[in-house]
Amino acid sequence: MRLRGGAAAAVVLVFAVAGCKAETTTGSGGPEETGGSGAALTAAESLTVKGRAPKTGYERDRFGTAWADTDSNDCDTRDDILKRDLEDVKFTGGDCKVSYGVLESDPYSGKEVTYRRGRSQVDIDHVVALSDAWQKGAKYWAASKRIALANDPLNLLAVDASTNRSKGDGDTATWLPPNKAYRCTYVAAQVAVKKKYDLWVTTAEKSAMEKVLSGCPGQKLPTGGNPTAAPPRFHAD
After folding, report:
1. Which residues, listed in sequence order, are joined to residue 56 by a DSSP beta bridge?
2. Contacts of 34 (CB under 8 A, 6+ apart)
3. At what angle do helices 183-196 and 203-214 cross, to 10 degrees?
4. Which of 103, 138, 143, 199 is the most exposed, having the fewest neighbouring CB atoms within 10 Å of its CB?
5. How many CB atoms lie within 10 A of CB 21?
6. Alpha-carbon dihedral of residues 209, 211, 179, 109, nearest 10 degrees?
7. Largest alpha-carbon pair distance within the chain?
8. Distinct helix (H) and strand (E) counts, the chain
9. CA-CA distances (angstroms) from residue 63 to 67, 131, 134?
10. CA angle 215, 197, 125 (to 5 degrees)
11. pLDDT digit string (tens) for the chain, length 237 residues
């Protein structure tokens, strides 16, 4: 997987298979290792299939305070991801609050997007949406696991805000990035998160994952990120 990094990230591998562009990078707190060739498709095939549970009871607060500093680096998660994914980063005091940066090639649209603090051109997307996770296992978890998912760099990506808003809480069966060259990488990321956190998928979702990944059979599986339980000082409603 990419996650395309800022100054701390170094591109390790870029390759194209069957029209899908797959990227592997290492970045601060992001995916650092990948499985062998074809690992993403193999992992997708192994995911548990169940029906979607009701959304009843879902609230963002069930996943803790937004952008909690679960990795204890004194920077909130949102700024960590901005630092990782943007180029030409500038800060407002110290080296945490990102005030400016450039998303040189937005993974979802392919266009260049400029980030300025206080404006909404760049979102931090949960690759596996929290409400989707809620309906596929997270409602039954301990709060510490939900908080971990919401702040795990493996599940977070700086993207063009306008394109991201069309996603909502869609899964692979209902939404894919308009940028077709990124779809293999995107689906591999969803598979990685669902496997790491033992989230299930619907029949339609699994079929869609396998369809995308069968077009890039060498796609690797991103790994890494944070532990699946947040430190005990964090709480969720």
Report:
1. none
2. 1, 13, 24, 220, 221, 222, 223
3. 130
4. 143
5. 18
6. -20
7. 48
8. 7, 9
9. 10, 10, 9
10. 65
11. 444 443 333 333 333 333 454 433 333 355 544 566 689 999 999 999 999 999 999 999 999 999 999 999 999 999 999 999 999 999 998 999 999 999 999 999 999 999 999 998 999 999 999 999 999 999 999 999 999 999 999 999 999 999 999 999 999 999 999 999 999 999 999 999 999 999 999 999 999 999 999 999 999 999 999 999 999 999 998
In this prediction the pTM is: 0.87
Task: Write out the two tokens for 226.
Answer: 């944070």
Rg of the Cα atoms in the chain: 17
H or E segment to which residue 206 belongs: helix 203-214
* Lookup: tokens for 148: 């971990």
User: Alpha-carbon distance 155 to 228, whole Å?
Assistant: 12
CA-CA distance, 110 to 46, in Å (whole number)? 31
Residues 143 and 20: their CA atoms lie apart, in Å, by 37
Give me the residue label for tokens 């899908």.
20
How far, in Å, are 134, 192, 208 from residue 45 at the CA level?
A: 21, 12, 11
Structure confidence at residue 237 (pLDDT): 86
Look at the block and give the residue holding tokens 């990120």.
225
